[in-house]
Amino acid sequence: MSRNLPPITLDIAQWAENMRRYLGRALDQLGFKETYSSASENGVILWDNVNGYPVVSKSASFKEVVLKNTAPTSSVGVAGDKAGLISWNASYIYICTGTYDASSHIWSRAALTGGSW
């Protein structure tokens, strides 16, 4: 099996389906990112056990694979939220900018607008 990720296409829905199929085939083959892991070959996907998310090698470094999280119900978030999380729905894209502490506002959102560019 190829270790290269499906290429990103203009049809995001199709790319997501291709990624789902790829991960379905590769999930049992995913290795763990270790301190000695090399990003010299583009397209290697590993699980970063320290940070708890998948990474892919690109341009000699590991990049986080963005995972869609549940859209927050408030700007304070919930236990487990940390900086870098991303979510979206039909109206907004949400970015987490801090670590949940039960009082700080850690989620920001931007409205999505339709129409042509």
Describe, in short, the structure shown:
This protein is 13% helix and 25% strand. The chain has 117 residues and is an alpha+beta fold. The longest helix is centred in the N-terminal third of the chain and has 15 residues, at 12-26.
Task: Provide key terms for this protein.
117 residues, alpha+beta, 2 domains, four-stranded mixed sheet, three-stranded antiparallel sheet, 7 strands, 25% strand
Describe the structure.
The chain has a four-stranded mixed beta sheet, with no helix packed on it. The termini are far apart. By secondary structure, it is an alpha+beta fold. It contains one helix and seven strands; from the N terminus they run αβββββββ.
Give the overall shape: globular
- Give the total of domains: 2
**Strand order, biggest sheet?**
1-2-3-4
Mean pLDDT over all positions:
81
Number of helices: 1
